[in-house]
Every structure is written in structure tokens, then in C-alpha cells.
Amino acid sequence: LLATGCGCFVFALSLPAGAAEPISYNRDVRPILSENCFFCHGPDQNKRKGKFRLDVREDAVAKKAIVPGKPEESELIRRIRATAGDDVMPPPETHKQLTPAQKELLRRWITAGAKYEKHWAYVPPVKPVTPPDKDPVDFLIRQRLRKLGLKPAPQADRRTLARRLY
Asked: pTM for the whole thing?
């Protein structure tokens, strides 16, 4: 819930991954890999299996776990679609399972080139450009609403605003 300078409130909306925005490694892919894959194919060399890392693009590409632009040639896609044997990933003994939506998102990410991004904590923030004569919060909210095809609600009357306050 965001308060705007005009005295009205707007709910912050987000689109489902892939609806209108491109797939983001940090927002969409990293959480899936972190939850399901990095325990065995991540930074801890003492727990790493298969002698490769999925958290480092060069290693994943070199081992053909990810073939950018070619999901059907990517070992990651083959393994997450497997239904029996030692090929099933994540392994059944971990009690983790990817949803069909997660599998499809990974497939689309690889199709789009499997771009990795630095961890968000290491990316310097970028201040959005806003007109100097307008309230930046209102401007950004209205810009987002336009992008979603929505219109802001009209400002509430004084009685309603007072009721919301108390």
C-alpha cells in the first residue's frame, strides 16, 4: 500500500513473471535455483556434486547444463523434466519439486539467452528520472499505473479520509 502526495492510497501491483516484463535472473530465476539447486551445485565446494556450479554462468555453460538460446540442449532442462532414475532433479530425497510454472520459466530464461545478473546487493541503485516540478512518488505511481493500463482512484471525500486516519 503506497501513500501518495494527493491524500489517496494506491496498492502496489506486480505482474506475474514473464507477463509483460522480461525475465530477470535476480527476481525470477535466482530464487528457484537457490532454493532447489545451489545446495548441490552452488558455492560450497564441500557439498558440490557433479563438479560444476549453477551459480556461475561460465561453469554452467562449460558443462552444458545451460546452453543459452537452446533449452532442449540444456542438461538443466532435461534433468528437471526427467521423471525416473538418477536423472531427476532436484533429487527425490531432497523432497523438493519444481512446479510446472517454474520449469517453464527456466526454459524461457534459457531461450532468452540465460543472462545472469550480479547479486542485487552489489548493484548500485539508480535513481529514476522524474520531472523536477512534480512529486516524484506520485509521478512514479502514475507511470506504473499507466503501464498496467489502470487509472488512479479519485481522491476520497474528507469524511472518508478522516475515517481512514482513525
From this structure: 0.69
